[in-house]
Amino acid sequence: MRQGELFPSVRSTAPLPDWRPGEAALQDWRERVAAFQHNRRRGQAADQACLPLFGPPGPPTGPGEVPDPLLLAPLALQFWRWPVPAHSGPALYFVLDHGLGDDRPLLLYVGETAHADRRWKGDHDCKAYLADYGETLSRGSAPARLSIRFWCDAPPEVRRRRQLEQQQIGHWQPPFNKECRERWQTPFQKPLD
């Protein structure tokens, strides 16, 4: 008996509908996210002309204020496979896509961790979103250029790190963070039934 014959009533010969957006819709989505974040970055520079290296306006964070994610050193997403970890200890991390060009980055995700060297090793919702995103982009002519960046001056206290993470999410509105999914309606992810 063949596998398809085990459940004949369930088997269908009709192709599954393609739930992924067309290239134009995905490009429009990327452009909207990039434009919003670019405006935030421009507003931030105007608000902090005397401190151009520091992060988004909001409640003062005191020493160790979070820098603009673009100023942090980029790493490949597979950094956790390296024999010697690039970072360790508490950190905020930022996943970016430079596929629209270096002058129009998309900040896709902001996270916090107590262990920068271990956070990305196991299961992570963001890894699934990035896989769907990359797969969808690979079907078109606009590939993703993904990187991850760590800010390792994050406070060791979980509560304070999470406050900083929420501040960054509120400011940048990264589309892969659950707090922002409704706003951006991530078009490359399969809808839930």
Q: Can you walk through the features of this model?
A:
- With 193 residues, this protein is of the alpha+beta class.
- It has one domain (24-184).
- 30% of the residues lie in helices and 12% in strands.
- The protein contains 4 helices and 4 strands; from the N terminus they run H-E-E-E-H-E-H-H.
- It has helices spanning 23-47, 125-138, 158-172, 181-184; strands at 74-75, 91-97, 106-113, 146-151.
- A 4-stranded antiparallel beta sheet has the order 1-4-2-3.
- A hairpin with an 8-residue loop joins strand 2 and strand 3.
- The longest helix has 25 residues, at 23-47.
- The protein is globular.
- Residues 6-12, 14-19 and 45-64 have low confidence and may be disordered.
Quick take:
The protein has 193 residues and is an alpha+beta fold. The chain has four helices and four strands. The protein has one domain (24-184).
Computed over alpha carbons, the radius of gyration is 19 Å
Terminal CA distance reads: 31 Å
Sequence of secondary-structure elements: HEEEHEHH
The shape, in one word, is: globular
Q: Name the structural class.
A: alpha+beta
Low-confidence stretches: 6-12, 14-19, 45-64
